[in-house]
Design a protein that fits this description.
By secondary structure, this protein is α/β, with parallel strands linked by helices. It has two domains: about 50 residues, Helicase, Ruva Protein, domain 3 (Orthogonal Bundle); about 140 residues, Dna Topoisomerase Vi A Subunit, Chain: A, domain 2. It is about 40% helix and about 15% strand. α5 links the parallel β3 and β4. α1 packs across α2 and α5 packs across α8.
Length: about 200
């Protein structure tokens, strides 16, 4: 860490804690220092239970081999849940998008997590995403519609067009979210009402 970010008279253990916290989204050096101090002052009530939860998650949580969502089960709870519509597959970029859509209650089918978006700048190519698995799932009997629920960004739209091309021979129709998702908007940051409106007004791709 630079001299300006270093906590005065702090031990290497505290410095490492601050450094690791600072790598989390939304936490810069100052926020990481505040978070570290908050945890250290509440060791019994928060820090030790958090450490145990992190250890359990690291050991037990993994990606579902079917849809790519995170769970302690494989297949995950959503894939294993009876009563969901097997004819619909909703394609999202990240697991956080699944959580957002489930929270909104707008979708009762199955999901497919790509694991990111195509990005020439970041070096993310089709083989880095779970596109081949999606094509295989789309070709299964009974699958009627693939819903592209990717963010309305350049990378999101590029990925959506690529996926649509790959699914052209699957026999399933391809649709995308419509009204309610602003250009440049991230699905995970949208409110429940916006997500619900986007799903109910989806249109063919």
């Amino acid at each position: 860490m630079s001299r300006g970010n270093r906590t005065p008279t702090s031990s290497p253990e505290i410095e490492r804690l601050i450094e690791l916290l600072g790598k989390a989204p939304g936490l810069g050096p100052r926020s990481a220092r505040r978070a570290a101090l908050y945890l250290l002052k509440r060791k019994e009530q928060l820090m030790l239970p958090l450490a145990e939860a992190l250890r359990d998650a690291a050991e037990k949580v993994a990606a579902c081999s079917e849809c790519g969502a995170l769970d302690t089960l494989d297949p995950c709870a959503i894939c294993a849940a009876p009563g969901r519509d097997d004819s619909l597959i909703c394609v999202v970029a990240e697991v956080g998008d699944v959580w957002a859509l489930e929270r909104a209650g707008a979708f009762k089918g199955r999901y497919h997590v790509l694991g990111g978006l195509l990005s020439a700048l970041d070096g993310v190519r089709p083989e880095n995403l779970r596109v081949a698995k999606l094509v295989e799932r789309a070709g299964r009997p009974g699958v009627k519609e693939i819903i592209i629920a990717l963010s309305a960004t350049v990378d999101g739209q590029t990925t959506a067009h690529y996926i649509t091309e790959q699914l052209s021979a699957s026999g399933a129709s391809v649709s995308r979210l419509a009204h309610g998702v602003p250009v440049g908007g991230e699905l995970e940051l949208l409110d429940d009402g916006t997500l619900f409106a986007a799903f109910t007004s989806r249109r063919p791709f």
